Amino acid sequence: MTYKIIGSDLSPFARKVLVFANEKGIEFEHDPLVPFGVSDSHKRMHPQGKIPVLVDGDRVVPDSSVICEYLEAENPEPPLYPSDNYERARAKWFEEFADSGLTTGASAYFFQNVITKYFFKGEPDLEAVEDAATNILPPFFDYLERELGDADYFVGGRFTIADIALGSTFGAYALGGGEVDASRWPKLAAYVERVHGRPSFKGLLDGNRAAIAAMAG
Ligand SMILES: N[C@@H](CCC(=O)N[C@@H](CS)C(=O)NCC(=O)O)C(=O)O
């Protein structure tokens, strides 16, 4: 039985699950559902009408973090969560920070400069983008620069769920025209490039850029 992953890969949360499955080498079918005006049958799987949702036979698993933990438990190799308790807690913290903290600033870029502008053909709220650039993101980037230090990846020197979640959120930032200023945050800028260069991310982000260019016309 092949997994089905539901959710457009323009969503950072769907991207997280797709990258996770790519890193695992898991076979899956992809339904690129856009979460605006979703059907009642989708709401029966996810009462908030959100993406992503994983379908595994007659099992339904909503929410990117829950899906990744489920996929890890079902497909232990290669491990994407540290086995050490503290390192696992750190990895899950960075995932949570990517999903709930960093995303507030990164999504302003993506939502205004891509979704509002090209999908809804509206006027982007440039004040929201400016607020993200000047108030929300710099202290978060300072924190990440410090926590990363000289390591290639955030936890235990290995690529984990922390990097998948952070890379997915930085994907929204990059697609929305955001750049990590390498003169201010050199380690973080190099890290984002390193993570986005992995095949699991690169194919998706290249496809996202092509889709955005097509929307832009
Ligand atoms: N905590 C959820 C967040 C999912 C989420 O917010 N998805 C957005 C797309 S990026 C969505 O479906 N939004 C549609 C809506 O809120 O109605 C997860 O990690 O899966």
What report would you give on this structure?
The protein has 217 residues and is an alpha+beta fold. The protein has 2 domains: 3-74, Glutaredoxin (3-Layer(aba) Sandwich), CATH 3.40.30; 85-216, Up-down Bundle (Glutathione S-transferase Yfyf (Class Pi), Chain A, domain 2), CATH 1.20.1050.10. 61% of the residues lie in helices and 7% in strands. It has helices at residues 12-24, 40-45, 64-74, 85-119, 126-148, 161-175, 186-196, 199-216; strands at residues 3-6, 28-31, 53-56, 59-62. A 4-stranded mixed sheet has the order 2-1-3-4, with helices on one face. Helix 1 (12-24) runs parallel beside helix 3, helix 4 runs parallel beside helix 6 (161-175) and helix 6 (161-175) runs parallel beside helix 8 (199-216). It is globular. The termini are far apart. The mean pLDDT is 97.
List keywords for this structure.
217 residues; alpha+beta; Glutaredoxin; Glutathione S-transferase Yfyf (Class Pi), Chain A, domain 2; four-stranded mixed beta sheet; 8 helices; 7% strand; binds glutathione
Kindly report the spatial arrangement of strands forming the biggest sheet. Answer: 2-1-3-4
CATH-assigned fold name of the largest domain:
Glutathione S-transferase Yfyf (Class Pi), Chain A, domain 2
Instruction: Give the number of domains.
Output: 2
Name the helicity range: 55-70%
| Class of secondary structure makeup | alpha+beta
- The overall strand count is 4
Measured by DSSP, the beta-strand proportion falls in: 5-15%
Radius of gyration: 17 Å
| Helix segment tally | 8
For the biggest sheet, the summary is: 4 strands, mixed
Mean pLDDT: 97
Task: Using the alpha-carbon principal axes, give the shape.
Answer: globular
The end-to-end span amounts to 39 Å
Q: Tell me what the CATH architecture of the largest domain is.
A: Up-down Bundle
